[in-house]
Q: What sequence folds into this?
C-alpha cells in the first residue's frame, strides 16, 4: 500500500471504503428508526440492483458468464451482504452505533488470522501487534460502553453482529483465496445485489411481522436511498477494487477509520463531545494501521 509509485485509483478506492462505510452506521441507525431492518436491507439492495441494471443495459454489458461465475457471486452475496450487511442492520435496532463499531472492528483481526490459516499471508509479530494495537485503540475509545456487553437486552444483537463479523471475514478471505480476474466489477456486484435483494425481501416478509408502511418516515427512507447508492454501489465497488490491489487485511483494516468517522459524525451532527480519550484512541488506531500496513517493499497486483 505504501508504494513509491502512487496509485491514485487505489487511493480513491481506499478513501471511498473508509469514508462512505464510515457514514453507514449513522445511515442505518436513521433507517431502522421507523423501518424494519430486513425491509431496510431489501430496499437498499433493490435500489443498488436497479442502478447497476440500468448502467449495464445502457452499455450492453449485462450477460451471463456461466455457472462458476454466478456461483461465486452468490457465495459472496450470501456471506458479505445477506449475512454481514443484513445482520448488522438488524443488530443496530438494539445495539448503539458505538458498540456496533467496536465489534465490527474485530474484522481485520479475524481476516488476518484466517489469511494466515489459509496461507494467504505469512504470520508475523508485526502483523499481530499492529492489528491488536488498533483493536486496543477502538476498545479504549468505547471503554465507557463496554458494560453494554453484559446487558441481557444486547445479547441477541451481539449474536447477530458476531455472525456479521464472521460472514464478512469469510467473504474477504474467500475473495483472496479464490482469485478471479474480472474486467467488470459492476456486473459482479449486480448479481450480488440482485441475489441478496431477493433473499432479504423474503426475510423481510417472514421476520418483520405486521408492518405499517404509513409509519415509515421520510428521513428513514432517504437514509435507505443513501445506503443503496453510496453504501452499496459506490462503497462495494471501491472495496472490491481495493481487494484486487492490496491484501485482505490491509483493506479490512479500514474498519478502524470507519469508527473514527462515526465519532466525527456524532460530533458534527449530534453535538457529541470529542474528549481526550477520543484523541488517545485515535493515535492508537492510526499507529496500529501504520504498523500493520508498513513494509519496506510490497508488490502490488496490477490486475
A:
Amino acid at each position: 500500500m505504501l508504494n513509491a509509485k502512487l496509485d491514485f485509483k487505489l487511493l480513491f478506492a481506499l478513501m471511498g471504503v473508509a469514508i462512505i462505510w464510515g457514514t453507514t452506521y449513522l445511515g442505518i441507525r436513521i433507517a431502522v428508526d421507523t423501518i424494519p431492518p430486513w425491509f431496510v436491507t431489501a430496499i437498499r439492495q433493490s435500489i443498488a440492483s436497479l442502478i447497476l441494471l440500468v448502467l449495464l443495459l445502457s452499455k450492453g454489458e449485462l450477460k451471463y458468464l456461466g455457472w462458476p461465475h454466478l456461483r461465486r457471486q452468490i457465495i459472496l452475496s450470501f456471506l458479505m451482504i445477506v449475512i454481514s450487511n443484513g445482520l448488522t442492520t438488524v443488530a443496530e435496532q438494539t445495539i448503539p452505533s458505538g458498540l456496533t463499531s467496536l465489534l465490527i472492528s474485530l474484522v481485520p483481526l479475524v481476516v488476518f488470522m484466517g489469511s494466515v490459516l489459509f496461507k494467504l499471508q505469512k504470520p508475523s509479530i508485526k502483523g499481530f501487534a499492529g492489528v491488536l494495537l488498533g483493536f486496543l485503540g477502538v476498545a479504549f475509545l468505547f471503554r465507557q460502553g463496554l458494560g453494554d456487553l453484559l446487558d441481557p437486552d444486547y445479547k441477541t444483537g451481539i449474536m447477530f453482529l458476531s455472525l456479521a463479523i464472521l460472514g464478512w471475514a469469510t467473504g474477504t478471505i474467500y475473495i483472496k483465496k479464490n482469485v478471479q480476474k474480472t474486467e467488470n466489477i459492476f456486473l459482479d456486484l449486480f448479481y450480488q445485489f440482485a441475489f441478496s435483494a431477493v433473499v432479504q425481501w423474503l426475510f423481510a416478509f417472514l421476520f418483520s411481522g405486521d408492518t405499517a408502511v404509513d409509519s415509515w418516515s421520510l428521513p428513514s427512507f432517504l437514509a435507505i436511498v443513501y445506503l443503496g447508492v453510496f453504501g452499496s454501489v459506490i462503497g462495494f465497488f471501491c472495496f472490491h477494487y481495493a481487494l484486487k490491489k492490496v491484501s485482505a487485511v490491509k483493506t479490512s483494516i479500514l474498519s478502524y477509520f470507519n469508527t473514527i468517522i462515526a465519532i466525527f459524525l456524532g460530533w458534527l451532527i449530534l453535538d457529541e463531545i470529542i474528549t481526550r480519550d477520543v484523541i488517545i484512541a485515535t493515535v492508537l488506531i492510526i499507529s496500529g494501521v501504520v504498523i500493520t500496513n508498513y513494509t519496506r517493499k510490497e508488490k502490488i497486483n496490477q490486475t
